[in-house]
Amino acid sequence: MIVPLRFRAGRAAAIGEANATMVSLRVNGDEREIRADPSTPLLWVLRDELRLTGTKFGCGIAVCGACTVMVGAQAMRSCTLPVGSLDGKVITTIEGLGDGNGGPHALQRAWIEHQVPQCGYCQSGFLMAAAALLAARRRPTDADIDAAIGNLCRCGTYPAMRAAIRSAARALATS
What global pTM score does this model have? Predict the structure, then answer.
């Protein structure tokens, strides 16, 4: 039997039928049944199998945060998160972030208002980390923001991000 190879970040990962298992996920509100090797990182299931490409590959070692998604209400780095450990979990990606009525989330509106994105590559990860923070703390302090968001931005838009998070927190507090 020929085992197909998938190339990611210069490494080949053999994905064979013998290792595949069924994993049930709720992704952005939709129930999904995924057949995958349990060690496959969630990032590649989202991007390659579900075609949700808003979650980005950055470093592959869970440092930069470009791949951040929410698992339940917790921000997690999907590039090293084995899909086999997520059976039955609720996953929210940038495509699923919104106000619940089909409009943008308060963070997305604040990101635009404060002109946060420069190149934009890291922004989906920052938005997901910030959404998890605001779900846990409606009025985060600067220390809370620093502790919760360890993502990296090569463009250095951190001051604008902090202002946008504060603005979104105010908007959420009044809604």
Answer: 0.88
